[in-house]
Each structure stands twice: as C-alpha cells, then as structure tokens.
C-alpha cells in the first residue's frame, strides 16, 4: 500500500484559485468561502510603498496535512476519523456524530461541516473520486497551471515526490506540535 | 406504580397534587420562570429540528458554542452536588448527613438537564450511542467522558434508591463508586480541553484538576440555593450546622481557586509564547472574565464569607446566586476562550483579512435551548420534591 503525501512548490503559486475550483467540482464541495477542503491564503507584502518587499508577498496554498500522528483521529470518539490503507486521513460520514471535537483539535483549520450530511468533511486526496477511479493525481494537482503540487507515494523511492523531497529543501507547518504532516512545502 | 414503589419509596401523589402548589409570590415567580424557560427550550428545539446547526452561530473557526458551555455548567453542577452529598453518606461527616438525599437527587436532575442540552448540540446523538459501542475511540477524551458520565448517572440513581430505602450500607458503596466514576468523568471533561495541542491556552493539566475544584464550589452554591428556597430562609437546626460548615469549606476552596487562576495567568503570560501569552492577556481584558468570572464567581462570595465569619446563611443564599452567575461565566469563557485565537498558519490573508480574535455570540436558538435547560432542571426538581421525601438523610 502507498503512503500518500504532497509536496507544494508554493513560491510558484499565482493565486489563480483553479485548484479550489477543481476541488469543489471534483468532490462536490458546496459553494461558499466557509466550505472548502483546500484554500489559498496569502501574505500582504511587507514594508511601505515604494519600498515594498515583494518576496514577502507569498501565496500559500494549504489543506488537510494528512498528519501521520493526527490529533483529529486521536480525539474522535466514534472512530469516524481513521487512517485508510494509504495513510490518508478520512472521515466516515456514517459514524460522525458532529461533536466537532476534531475541528477544535486540528491545528491546521482543515475541517469544515458539510451542510448536506451535517458531518465533518475535509480533503481526502481525492480518495473517493479520482483515486477510486484509478487515476493517480488529485484534482488540485491536475489543474494547477504552475505545477505547485506534486502528489504521490512517499514510500516509493522512485516517485516524483520522493525525488523532490530528496533534492529540495522543505518544511512542514507547525512541526513543533509533533503531528508529522505529509504535506511538504518546498523552499 | 406499586411495582416502582417497591423499588423506591415514594410519597403518595396524584396528578392533581403534582400540579398544585402553594401560591406564594416566590412560588409563582418560580412557576412562571420555569414555564417560560421550558417554552424557550421547546421553541429552540423546533428551530433546531427545522434548520439543524444553521440555527446556531457556531462556525468553522468557533465550532463549540453556548450549548457546550451549558452542558458543562450542568455536569459540573452535578458533580458538585455529588461531592456535597457524599460528605454525609460516603464519608460519614455527621453535620452533612441530612443533606445527602437532596444533594444526590440534585446531582441526578442536573445531569439529566445537561444531557437534554447536549442532545441538541451533538449533530447525531443516536449515531453516537451506536458507534460509541461499536467502534469506540479509546484515545478520545470525549468518549471517556461520555461513557463515564453514563455510568455515573447509573450509580447515582442506584445510590439514591438505597438512600430512599434507608439502606445506608449499600448507599455508601454505590455512593463511593459513583463519586469516583463521577470524578473520573469530570476530569476527563477537563481533559477534552487539556488534550488540545492546537489550542495552547487550554492545553495541559490545568483543566482536569480545575474542573474538580470548581465542581465542589458549584455544589456548595447550589445546596445553599436549594435549602434557601426549600425553607424560605427559615433553615432548621440540623441543616444549619452543615450549611455553616460548608461556608468555611467554600471560603477555603475559593481561596485555592484564586490561587490557581493567578498561577495560570502568571505561567501563561511569562515567556510570551504566542497563542498562550497573547490569548491570556486578551482574556484578562474581557468583561466576561473580570466581572463575570472573577468578581461574581470568586471575589464577592469570598469577601462576603470572610466578612461575615461564616455565620450568615441568609446572606450566603444570595451570595450563591451571584456565585452561580459567576460559574456560568466560568463555563462560557472556558469554551469561548479556547477558540479565541485563529489557527492561522503562515498566511495572514484568506479571502478577507481574518479577524485578530475569533468572535462568537450565541444565536437565539442556542440561548433558548441552553437556558431552557435550567427550566428542565427546575421542572425535574419540582416533581422530585413532590414524589420523594428528600428530608432527613443518613442515620
Ligand atoms: S491536518 Fe488536521 S484534519 Fe488533517 S490529518 Fe492533520 S489534524 Fe487531521
Ligand atoms: S465531529 Fe465527527 S469526525 Fe469529528 S471527532 Fe466528532 S465524530 Fe469524529
């Protein structure tokens, strides 16, 4: 079985939000700014006009980090949140009781309530959609015009993501919390 | 009915006697308050059934709201009354024997009110009952809290039955077990917050211990209110001695609580860790904390008890009313403050500038259901008084 992760070459991000749209379309995520599995945040440039520090104005795509030690999984009282065989953190809507504990426990703000099922949802690396159909890319990766995202098997030394992580410097978010995210930001 | 009476001794009552009460101004006031609160609860539930969580003001950033706070308010009250009730029948302190029945009964009805409120917060309570058993999340503090509270309620009911049968030996056994399970459940409720690595202001061992301490304080406030109302301030001697003793304990507990809180803020602010220090400072500037929690919940009651040298029951009944307002704010602030700090990652902007602090104010439906829970408590307590002889205690 695979251990899926994603590398983000975030400095290439141009904030076109194509990935957000593709994700909503692919996975049937409801419309609205509050309902999103993935998002592109940003930082305003630092400094005073005309001395703006352009490099500080990065765009920062993010989503569920698919933590190896996921706080959301640990706190779920009914095991609705679980690791699937590919290490992807998933939510079983039939078991979710909407206690919202996982929303409070996730340090990455990665979960939202799906108003139709009234259960918690989040990024699944397209496990129910594209991967289930046998495809090997996620919708966000597939649509990104500047190739910010690389999705793949971290355990396969030949995979593109393994190659990237071997050759490029990278970091993960809030690593001090010990959640061991499987999302890697390339510097 | 006779069958039930064989299990648990009851007074003789009819539907009519249940519905009639002496029409004193105080009783009438309580009647209208209770009916009003029950009406609000009913309206809130209908609102919830029609719009589910959309009837609430909880959001992605602030998923827990007033209903969680009210649930905590009730279960803390229950644990508190259980502790107070145990003083006599479990630990054998003579001065408190006469209070056991009323306190244990109170602990049962407060937790039922808590369950009534939480049933409309958890999105799928029936699913919870099923999958709590079929696929238990043993690493989840919510799982332990829920399971242990269920057990606790069972033990409290059994203890109450033995108390009513004047079977003190068994009441003691189940009382002690219930107390231990209740304390475990209650510290687990503190753990629900304590385990949140993502919310450093709540993370740590503080809440599990703080919950037990404030439960005892809440129990004492409530027992004052219950007896103040029961005897219209003309408290009989056997109860008086116990109540005066409780005032001394209360002053001591409040002193410990203030000490706890002081250190919590000192350690939170010292070192300036982001997410902890800034949140703590923000809390220190909030009116709900300063006036609600600190002034009503701790300082005013403490000063009154100190100034009157633990001798003025009437005053303590009024003090307890103020104290319970403080306790409400303690619960509300606990829930709200945990979620105050946005979980920003590297970004500072997303669609629009995120607020520096996450705002929340409960919706009408949340207020109706949350405070309506108090109506449920009043109603159950009223019927209990009519059905059971809550006077006298262990002998
Ligand atoms: S990012 Fe949040 S939702 Fe995703 S696995 Fe980690 S803790 Fe869970
Ligand atoms: S909201 Fe659902 S997925 Fe999240 S902890 Fe509760 S039951 Fe588990």
From TrEMBL, chain A:
The keyword Iron is assigned to this record: yes
Gene3D superfamilies according to UniProt: 3.30.70.20
InterPro entries reported in the protein's UniProt record: 4Fe4S_Fe-S-bd, 4Fe4S_Fe_S_CS, ET_IronSulfur_Cluster-Binding
Top-rank taxon: Bacteria
Domain spans labelled 4Fe-4S ferredoxin-type: 4-34, 55-86, 87-116
CDD domains found in the cross-reference section: PsrB (cd10551)
A molecular function (GO) term: 4 iron, 4 sulfur cluster binding
Extent of the signal sequence: none
Keyword field: 4Fe-4S, Iron, Iron-sulfur, Metal-binding
UniProt name for this protein: 4Fe-4S ferredoxin iron-sulfur binding domain protein
The species this protein was found in: Sulfurimonas autotrophica (strain ATCC BAA-671 / DSM 16294 / JCM 11897 / OK10)
TrEMBL record, chain B:
Compartmental location: Cell membrane
Entry annotated with the keyword Membrane: yes
Species classification: Bacteria, Pseudomonadati, Campylobacterota, Epsilonproteobacteria, Campylobacterales
Keywords: Cell membrane, Membrane, Transmembrane, Transmembrane helix
Lineage top rank: taxon: Bacteria
Record's bilayer topology term: Multi-pass membrane protein
Record-given protein name: Polysulphide reductase NrfD
Membership in a protein family: Belongs to the NrfD family.
GO CC list: plasma membrane
InterPro entries: Electron_transfer_protein (IPR052049), NrfD-like (IPR005614)
Primary residence: membrane
Transmembrane segments: 26-46, 66-91, 103-122, 142-162, 174-196, 208-229, 249-269, 289-308, 315-332, 360-383
